[in-house]
Each structure stands twice: as structure tokens, then as C-alpha cells.
Amino acid sequence: MDHELVLEGKTFLDHTFQQCCIGIDQGKITKIKKILKGDRHHRFSREILLPAGIDVHVHFRDPGMTNKESFLSGSVAAAFGGISCVFDMPNTHPTTIAPKLISDKQRIATQKSIVDFGLYAGITKESLLKTDDILKIASMSHGFKIFLGETTNSLTLPPDYLVEVLRRIRPTRKPTFIHAEDNMCLFKHKIREQNLYDHHTARPPECEIKAIEKVISAAKQVETAVHICHVSSSSALNALKDRPRCMSYGITPHHSLLHNEMDNVPSSWLKVNPPLRSKTDQKTMFETVRRGDVSLLESDHAPHSRKEKETDFSDAPCGIPGVETMYPLYLALAEKQQIPYRRVVSLLCENPSQLLHVSKGFISEGYDADIIVIDRKNIVKIQNENLHSKSDCSPYEGFSALFPSMVFIRGNKTIEENEQKVSKGYGSMVPLNKSEFLTED
Questions:
Q1: Do residues 26 and 16 make contact, with C-beta atoms less than 8 angstroms apart?
Q2: Is 414 in contact with 421 (CB distance < 8 Å)?
Q3: Helix or strand or coil: residue 103?
Q4: How far apart are CA 21 and CA 41, in angstroms?
């Protein structure tokens, strides 16, 4: 039988590169063989084919802060960076903590996004009073987000409520993502900050460790899927060695590639929560990624305008853009043999797919045909003027990157040779896990 589309080339299958044909029908991979026929046939002789990436952690600022980013601009940036699916955090304005607010954000994303997407719901102390709301928002979202420490437009949850909140969430079978900085610890260390070292001092690893230890204790009691976001320090990694099997954690490109001793970009561009740490910490984080001892890579794409970031350091907002550069940065490192290709695909495609139960992240029969085409010789230097986020202050300017020359999302050509090929609204919300709720023990 002829397929609607066939992609032929050196393809990443079962953790190795193999020459094959990928048959695609109605947006799904339907057959993988040495030879296939298709109504349309793309043969790639020098490029490689990889699964498109999944970014489990973005802040697209929509609604309420679209001067910084929107679902359109953020999704375009994601697509150019080889990311076919993003999951948006709830600290927008208003925060997505109720059914109507989640519904409103879904409508906005559906109208604007060119990549597929998922949404998280925020959990606050007040959520405990509304168990029905937790069940309702679970049926509308892909997971929950808890902030244990204050950060951009977030609502914090006192850690004393963690066990009860996780108990309420557990029957929904949805993962809980946690910003792990202890708020009381942050308050104790608060100072007026003038530079990156001050920011590190004001939000020290001690606060991260305190939060992680409380999450570990709660997760051991409740045994539900919990993910610690953006781990930043060697000491936090040590604390995580005691985590239960139900806990995962992520590392960002900025914590594994940048450090607080850098002086080649404005220091405010590097201001982020949790803070960048020392060069020694950064090397440890990168080595953890290289070995694959972390669950996944997540961008924590948190854009602000250049005007906002280039104010006085103490007033500059926290956040680094990264959805467009994450996959290309690590592909360039893979091509330079500083990290295995299989590790990059595992941390950016396969593991996120499994954590969030989405039919993406693998070039395998039955999965969405989300595939990127890479010309391995086309390593370039990142330039802010060539990126697509509204935030034009990426600290990765000058870093080597390997951007895709072509991106397919659900079998449709989305990006080709630096041109966007689909209109806004092409992206759709990925299906929700409709599993029956767990019965309480």
C-alpha cells in the first residue's frame, strides 16, 4: 500500500541510527521499513532524522503578559528549535487555578499555537477546600504545579500542606511539578541584590535542599508522580539520591551550560530562579546530564523584554528564554561528541513522552509523526536577531547550535529552511489521559 507521506533517511531508531523509510498516514507513523512507497516521498541523503523534542516546562506568558511572549511567538520559537510539543505553566495573569481559567487558556492556545501543547493547573492552599475543583481541573489539564517558593507571578503553597495536596491529587493519576525552594528559607536570606552572586546568596542551595527534603518526605507517604523542576546545585542532586521511585527531576540548559561567574553578557540576563550557581556546580550539572542520571531536560523558558532585563539588577525580573535553543545546543554538543546522541534524544524526547503519557518523542509505529531533519554540518553560532521569541536577550548568543532544517508535526511540514509553513492555530492540545481515577486505599 502507498502511504500519504514517506520520509527516507538515516533515522534514530532504538537508540541507534538506521537507514529506513517512515510511512506516515493521518499524522501518525504507520510503518517503518527499509523500503516503502508513498504519495509524497522525501529522501534525505546527508541529513539525519530524529524525533522532535518535548519541552515539559515553558512560560508562554499568555494570557496577561503578552508583551513578554504569547502562545504564537513562543510556539514559533519552539518549532524553529525542533520542539513539537510544549507544556505551559500556570503562573500567567490570571493564574490558571480554576476550571474556567484553564478553559480560557486552552482556547487562547488553540487559536494561536503552531505546535501541540499541554497545560498545567496551579495548586494553592485554597485548593484543599475545593476537592471537586481538583478533580475538575485534572480532567482539563495534564498535570499540576506547586510553587514552594515565590517567583514570577506565582502563588506559593506552604509545605505543611504538601502531603494533603498530594493525597487529593493522587486519584487523578496526573503528575505534580514542583518549584522546590523553601519560602521561609528564602525570607531568611533576603538581601538587596546587586549582582549574580548576591542572587545566589539570597536564594542559596540550602533553600532548594530544604524544599526537596520536604517533597521527598511527602512523596514517600503518598506515592504519587512528583517532578522536581530545574534542579540547580550539586547539593540538591545529593539530596535527591534519597528520592522514591515515584519522583523524577529535571535540569535546564542554563543550569548545565551557564554559571554565575560569566561576564560576557549583562548579569541581569542571567538572573533566574533558582539562581545560576558556581562554575563547579555547572560542570556537575552538565556531567549529570551527560551520564543520563537526570530524568529529563526542560527549558524553563521564561521570557522578558530586553527593556525589563536591562534595568538595575535588583529590579530586573527573573527568567531566561530557552525553548528555541535547548535542543539545538545539545545537538551541537552531540555532534562534537561531548554528549551521546542517544542521551539527548532520551532526555528531550523519550523521557518527557513517558512522564506525561503523550504519543510523541519516539520514531515508532503508532506515535505522532513529529520528526526533525538535521544537517549535521550546519552548526551555527546563536544570534539573538535570528531567534523568534519576543525576548531578544538570550544569554546563549555565540554558543554553537544545530538547528533543524525541517520540522514535521503530525506529518505536516511546519518549518523548512528557516520558513514557517503552517498558520497560527495549527497546534492542538494533546489528548488528556482519560484513565479511571484510582480508588483510595
A1: no
A2: yes
A3: helix
A4: 9
Q: How confident is the model at residue 435 (pLDDT cuts 50, 70, 90)?
A: very low
- Determine the Cα–Cα distance for residues 180 and 355; give it in Å rounded to an integer: 19
Give per-residue burial for 289-304: e unless 16+ CB within 10 Å, then b.
bbeeebbbbbbbbbbb
Is a pLDDT exceeding 50 seen at residue 441? no
Q: Which residue of the set 55, 133, 300, 370 is catalytic? A: 300
Strand pairing category for 400-401 and 83-88: unpaired
φ and ψ at residue 200, rounded to 5 degrees: -60, -40
Taking a C-beta distance cutoff of 8 angstroms, is the pair 210, 189 a contact?
no
pLDDT of 131 higher than 70: no
What confidence score (pLDDT) does residue 384 get?
A: 97
Q: What is the pLDDT of residue 439?
A: 38
What is the rounded CA–CA span in Å between residue 388 and residue 373?
19
What domains, with CATH codes, occur in the chain?
A: 3-50+366-389+401-420 (2.30.40.10), 53-356 (3.20.20.140)
Which cell numbers in the block locate residue 394? 538570550
Distances in Å between the alpha carbon of 319 and those of 152, 191, 269, 273, 305? Answer: 8, 19, 8, 7, 10
Task: Give the pLDDT score at 312.
Answer: 96
Q: Which amino acid is it at 415?
A: I
Please give the pLDDT value at position 130. Answer: 63
Q: Measuring CA to CA, which residue among 118, 124, 165 is closest to residue 142?
A: 118
pLDDT of residue 129: 60
Q: Check if 300 is active-site.
A: yes
Single pTM value for the model: 0.97
Count CA atoms closer than 13 A to 110's CA, side-chain side. 8
Cell numbers linked to 346: 532520551
523509510: which residue's cell? Answer: 21
150 compared with 215, residue with greater pLDDT: 215
Q: What are phi and psi of 402, to 5 degrees?
A: -125, 95
